[in-house]
Amino acid sequence: MDNSTSDIGDILSRIKKAFVTRFSLRTDQADDDQIDHNIRSGVELNGTYLWTLMCAILIASIGLNINSAVVVIGAMLISPLMGPIMGIGYGVGIYDFRLIHKALKNLAIATIISFITSAIYFYVTPLNEAQSELLSRTSPNIWDLLIAVFGGLAGIIGLTRKEKSNVIPGVAIATALMPPVCTAAYGFVHGNMSYFLGASYLFLLNCIYIALSSVLVVWFISPEARRKINEKLQFRLKAFLLTVVFVSCIPSVFIAVNFVNNQIFNSNVSTFISKELVFDNTFPVDYKSSYKNKTISVVLVGHELNEQTVEDIRKSLAKYGLPDTKLELKQVGVHEQDINAIRTALAKDILANNNQEAQKKEQILETIQAEAQSAAQKAKEEKETLYKGIADEVYIQYPDVNELFFADAYISKQSAENKFSEVPTVIVLSKKVLKKDVKKKIEKWMKYRFQSQNVQIIFVNR
């Protein structure tokens, strides 16, 4: 029994030792002097640093302006902004207030130069539209905070190693310090305070949590450069850090909650449309939804749905988690523009690799087109029959009439706010001027034959 217990203890001890060895930060840690030198040199603000910074910020601005993720990533690789932020964290970790002051000052100078450089670019560029790469930096949330934390941890661990690695460039890409500055500059130049404040908050969030991560690692490795300060000052410093961390994360939590709710809403809308708006000869070609306004607007093409079906669809919103959502259905017929809309919808499905849905819509489209063509042909034949009958009867009753022109005229009246109305029109050509009573008889008879009082009769003699 004792031997068995001893064996288990040895196994657990070896597992613990292997675990500690594997995850130890001491194994390849640089000596304290090298760590101190590496971090302090990154804080320095010299000519090379500033020129590199301005080039990086211009590249990032262009990348955001033309919506190129590759260009933005390239700018982040060049960016030297990580140095002062790591310096702040290291300074707090070793209680070097002079280093903290220097790093803060240099970070502020670098940020101002970056902001001005980017603002000048966005002021002179002819491309003014905000692209998706830029918009993604305007609503920071809790996930951006977590990226900054883990990025900061990876960054300070990389800086404290003997051998240089690709950790720092990777952290620069992940935490994305440059794009928020560019986005803030864009918002400032174009007077969009929402963009300016959102991007500024994201930049501030990144700086705070990268520095915080650095502080935690520095406290853990306890370098020799760490100074001793009295417990009261230590307590005040830690209380200040906790306050900054707590206050800075509050907005991101609210934004994250709104983001999650918005994603859930959009997912529910997508499920609702795919489940409830599926019919044999009708399908949605486009839809827009708004979580803020709780609205869904859907464009349907094909056979028109009756009122009862529409009401049943609206009642089904609740079971998809959309109880207070307003549904607007726009049902359109199959005209040329509607065919184009359907083709666009089919292209979207194909691009999304949704071939099955695309094939289904293609079949429905072919059926609808065939029905529309058949209906159009039938209407044309009916009109031709009507016109031929009218013409034959007119020529027999009124020999002086030698030609008839039939058309559907579009009439606009100023009193009707320039709205157009379609009116059947007949131009009567006669060899000589017809008498008034003959004209009245023709007008009366035409209205009877067209079954409409709005028929326009124009008499012309030649």
From TrEMBL:
Residues 351-385 form a coiled coil. InterPro entries: DUF389. Pfam families: DUF389. Keywords: Coiled coil, Membrane, Transmembrane, Transmembrane helix. The keyword Transmembrane helix applies. The chain crosses the membrane at residues 48-66, 72-92, 104-122, 142-160, 167-189, 195-220, 240-260. PANTHER family: AT15442P-RELATED. NCBIfam families: TIGR00341 family protein (TIGR00341). This is Putative TIGR00341 family protein. It comes from Oxalobacter formigenes OXCC13.
